[in-house]
Amino acid sequence: MPENEWVRIIPLGGLGEIGMNMFVIETANDIVVIDAGLMFPEEEMLGIDLVIPDFSHLLQHREKVRGLILTHGHEDHTGSLPFLLKELPIPVYGTPLSLCLAAEKIREQNLDADLRQIAPRDRFALGGLQVECMRVCHSIPDGVGVALETPAGLVVHAGDFKFDPTPVDGELTDYHKFAELGDRGVLVLLSDSTNALRPGFTPSERTVGRALEEIFRTARRRIIVACFASHIHRIQQVLEVAAMLGRKVAIHGKSMVANTRIAGDLGYLRVPPGVLVRLDELRHLSPAETVIIATGSQGEPLSAIARMAAGEHKQIEITPGDTVIFSARVIPGNEMSIARTINHLLRRGAEVITEEHAPVHVSGHPCQEELKLMLNLTRPKFFVPIHGEYRHRHHHAKLAAAVGIDSEHICLAENGDILEFTPDTGGIVGKVAVGRIFVDGKGVGDVGDAVLRERQHLARDGMVVVVVGLDPRTRAVVAGPEIISRGFVDLQDQEALFDAAKRLVIEVLAGCLEEERGDAAVLKENIRVALRKFIQKNFDRRPMVLPVVIEV
Q1: Pick from 161, 187, 190, 156: which is nearest to 173 by CA?
Q2: What CA–CA distance (Å, rounded) separates 376 from 369?
Q3: Is 265 an annotated catalytic residue?
Q4: Which of 34, 346, 524, 546 could form a disulfide with 23 if both were Cys (CB 3.0 to 4.6 A apart)?
Q5: Looking at the domain assignment, is residue 511 inside a domain?
Q6: Active site residue: 361, 365, 392, 396, which one?
Q7: Distance between CA atoms of residues 321 and 423, nearest Å
Q8: Distance between CA 311 and CA 323 in Å, rounded?
Q9: Do 109 and 18 sit in the same domain of this protein?
Q10: Residue 2 falls within a domain, yes or no?
C-alpha cells in the first residue's frame, strides 16, 4: 500500500448528543471540515447560552485545513461557525440558503468570512480532495450530502436527509447520485441515526399541510402556529392554507422574521399575494380572518408563544376560542417548559393542538426503511452511524448488519475517536482531545465544569457569607462578624442559631490568633470548615460558605 493511501475521520461533535455536529476528514496533506454546529444548553448548565465543540485539533493543524462544507442551515450544523472563524478564517462552502443563514450569525459577531456558494452536483477541489454534493430532503431547503474522493477511497457523508416522495418544494433526495456513488464504490458511509429506533418511513411533509387545512377549516377564531424559525416548508404550507381559506398571516419573532425574509429573497419561500400583514395590522381584522406564525414551539420563556400564554405580550392577548398549534417535535429536556406553556394557554381558553392530537409535525430525518435504502444505494465497505445518542447509533449499526454490511466493518465511534481507513482496513486508531466549550454571554470557554458545579451548588443549597473586620496590628475583631444568607434560610427565622454561628466565628478567630496563625487565607479556611460543620449539624444542609476577612 502506498504510504499516503489513508483517510482519517474524526468526529469533534455530534456523537452522543443531538447537536454540535462537526466532522474532520483528514489525509496526509489536507483537512476538510463538514459542519460546525452548536448545542443548546441542558437543564443543569445554569447560565450557559450555547455549547460548541472543542476545535483545538483544527487549530493545531491549521496549515492543512482547506475549507468547511455546510450540509444545511440548521444551527446544530452551523451555529459554532462564527466562533471557529474567529480562530481559523477558512473558506466556507454551502448552498445559498445555508450560507445566508450562516452569514446572519457571522455578521452578529462582526466578522468577515469567505463564503463560497455551491449547488448540488457541483464538483470542486479542496486541496488534493475532490468534493461533490448531492441534494437531500430535510426539514429545511437546500440540504446536501457530501462525497469526498480521498487517496484511500470515496467517503460519503449523507447529511441530514429523508426520502420524501412528495416534498413541498419538489426537490427530491438525489437517489440517482447516491446510487451512482455506490456503483463507483463507497469506502465509508456516514449516515444520520436520529430516527433509527422508528420503523417504516418518515411521513411526507405534505401530510402536515393536509392536517393544517382540516384544523384551519374548523377553527372559530384566531389561529397561532408555533414552529421552528428555520422550517421554511412548514411556513410555506401555513401560508398556502391561509391564503386558500381567506386568512391573513403575520410572522412574529425575530428569527422567524429574519428567516422568512431570507428564504423569500432567495426564492425558497413563495408568499401568496396579499396574504402577509404586519402584526399591528391584526387589530383591524376579525380574529376569524387571522393566522400568526410565531416562535416558541419549545416553550422558551421569552418566546412569543410563552409571553402570549403568560398574558405578558404587548400586542396579542389569548382569548377563548383561539387555536394554538405546536407544529414541532419536543426536543428532549424541554418537556416541562412546553407543558407549562400549554397549561397557561388552556387556562386562557385556547384550544391547543400538538402532534399527539393530529399530524401537525413530521420529522426531517429518516426512519428505519429509509436508512436501509441509503445503505443499499451506497453499499459502503465501512459504515459509521452518526448524528445521535449511542442508542440511536447502536440500532443503526444493527440495521446495517441486517442489510449485509460486515459487522467488523461497522464503527461505533465517540467524539474524538480517530477513525483511519485504507482501501482494505478500517477502525479506531487513536483519540484527539475533544469536549464541550460553554458560551456564556461574551465569554467563550471561560466557564468550565468547576464553575458549573459551583452554580449548581448555589442553585441547590444557597450561600452563606461571613464578613469580619480585624485590626491590622493586633488582629483583634473590630467589626462583625456579620452573616448574610442567600437562598439558604431567612436569618430572622433562625436568629438564635445565627447568633451561635457568630460566636463560633469569634472562637475560631481567637483560636487561630492564639496559635499565631493570623494569615487571612488560614483564617478564612478555618471559618469555612467550622461553619460548614455547624450548618450541617443544625440544618442538615450544605450551602456554599464564603468567609470575607478585611482589615479595618
Answers
A1: 161
A2: 10
A3: no
A4: 34
A5: yes
A6: 365
A7: 64
A8: 16
A9: yes
A10: no
Segments in the chain below pLDDT 70? 1-3, 40-49, 332-333, 438-461, 471-478, 480, 486-498, 509-521, 540-541, 550-552
41 plus 178 within the same structural domain: yes
Average pLDDT of the chain is: 87
Please indicate, yes or no, if residue 407 is contained in any of the structural domains.
Answer: yes
| Confidence (pLDDT) at 492 | 62
Burial of 271 (0-12, 13-18, 19+ CB in 10 A): middle
Residues 192 and 314 in one domain: no
**What's residue 25's pLDDT?**
97
Q: Which three cell numbers stand for residue 139?
A: 426539514
Smallest CA-to-CA distance from 237 within 95, 319, 141, 353 is with 141
* Tens-digit pLDDT profile for residues 223-266: 999 999 999 999 999 999 999 999 999 999 888 999 999 999 99
Same-domain pairing of 122 and 14 = yes
Q: Can you tell me the distance from the alpha carbon of 411 to that of 373, in angstroms, rounded to the nearest whole number?
A: 19
- CA–CA separation, 534 and 188 (whole Å): 61
Q: Which pLDDT score is estimated for 449? A: 58
499 has catalytic annotation: no
Does residue 157 share a domain with residue 24? Answer: yes
Set 192, 322, 417, 440: catalytic member: 192
Q: Are residues 338 and 383 in the same domain?
A: no
Instruction: Write out the E strands in 358-509.
Output: 382-386, 417-421, 426-431, 436-440, 443-444, 463-470, 477-486
> Alpha-carbon distance 250 to 331, whole Å?
25
Task: Decide: helix, strand or coil at residue 368.
Answer: helix
Q: Where are the beta strands (DSSP E) in 395-532?
A: 417-421, 426-431, 436-440, 443-444, 463-470, 477-486
Beta strand 50-53 with 436-440 is antiparallel
Q: How far, in Å, CA of 364 to CA of 374, rounded? A: 15
Do 47 and 196 lie in one domain? The reply is yes
3-state SS, one letter per residue, for 185-252: CEEEEEEECCCCCCCCCCCCCHHHHHHHHHHHHHCCCCEEEECCCCCHHHHHHHHHHHHHCCCEEEEE
CA atoms within 13 A on the CB side of 119: 1
What's the pLDDT tens digit per position in 477-496?
Answer: 667 677 777 666 665 656 66
68 and 189 belong to one structural domain: yes
Peptide bond into 481 cis (omega under 30): yes
381 within a domain of the structure (yes/no): yes
Domain that includes residue 511, residue range: 462-551
